[in-house]
Amino acid sequence: MNRYFSVARTFFLLMAAFISLVAPRLAMAEESMLAQDSRAALKSLYDGSPGAKALGDKASAVLVFPNVVKAGFILGGQGGDGILFTKDKVTGHYNTAAVSVGLQAGAQSFGYVLFFMSDKVLSDFRASKNFQIGVGPNIVVIDAGAAKDVTTLTAKADIYAVIFDQKGLMAGIGLQGSKITKLNP
After folding, report:
1. Per residue in 67-92, pLDDT tens?
2. By the 8 A CB rule, do 161 and 62 touch?
3. Which site among 17, 131, 146, 169 is 20 to 30 Å from 2 CA-CA?
4. Which residues of 126-155 are buried (b: 16+ CB within 10 A; e: fewer)?
């Protein structure tokens, strides 16, 4: 019986050592995948919208949520994870979430990007624990098609939110009331 426990204990110790070595790499691979998805989504947006590219070039930082899922039947919710890029470097991981009540039915996915147009607005965003769209700084929400007409000469808002890549069967997309929370990777 002692031999059985000794073999089992050795097996569990080896498994624990293996998991402790592999788990951080798996987490880094997942994080890397989110960063890759975010970069790809941003590139796709920029390729199709010179106005969005101009905003990105002028912005202090860009927060990309490449895949937000929304579903509801009277009561709805949406959520997804994203990456904050400052000068093309990953500087934070965030989650967006919202709950809504009303006449709604269906499901869809979409992406959105927040362009922080000044260092002050970016600093305020980073200092907040629960940033809520529609409360605080001046945010202009536009879809990728309308972003084509935005230029750095007309860009006067603190933050621009550009919605893109909408798929699914649900009428309308709203970011109003969405809460953005910093994740600890």
Report:
1. 999 998 888 899 999 999 999 999 99
2. no
3. 17
4. eeeeebebeeebebbbbbbeebeebeeeeb
